[in-house]
Amino acid sequence: MRFILIFFLFLLFLPLLTACDQEQSAEPESALENTARAPEEPLAGEIAETETAAPEEETEDDFDYDGLPPGTGREEVFVNCSSCHSLKLVQQQGLSPHRWEEILDWMVEEQGMTPLEPPERERVINYLSTHYGPPQ
Fold it and tell me: Across 1-136, where does the E strand assignment appear?
């Protein structure tokens, strides 16, 4: 499941990466040649930086999930629901577990959604009915 999320994010950011490559290749070669130079050695008394800070990787906790609250099944709901429609549509429903089951059946039968495996389906139904169930 994590692979699917990473692949989805890659596809999301691919146009940005392509745009960056096009901007860089638009620079004249002479400008690129002028910026290349030997690294400076530290002056006496200075400490040389031997390591560069590794870029921070985005963790699952940093990812927004379009406002879905934390909980078991959030990743599955994000990937499966947002691939076809806005998560705002999910967040406004307020359905019972039985109605969420019917909605998933309808989406598979009528909308071409890929059927979820039973454990994944159970996590999705539990998550949706817990966070987007009928008002208490």
Answer: none
Task: Report which DSSP code applies to 28.
Answer: -
Domain at 97, CATH number: 1.10.760.10
Parent domain of 116? 70-130
Copy the structure tokens of residue 84.
């076809």
Q: How far is 41 from 55, CA to CA, in rounded Å?
A: 24
pLDDT tens-place string over residues 44-88: 555 555 555 555 555 555 678 888 999 999 999 999 999 889 999
Q: Establish if 1 belongs to a structural domain.
A: no
The total number of structural domains that make up the chain? 1
Q: Alpha helices of the chain — where are they, by DSSP H?
A: 2-25, 29-35, 74-82, 87-91, 97-111, 118-131
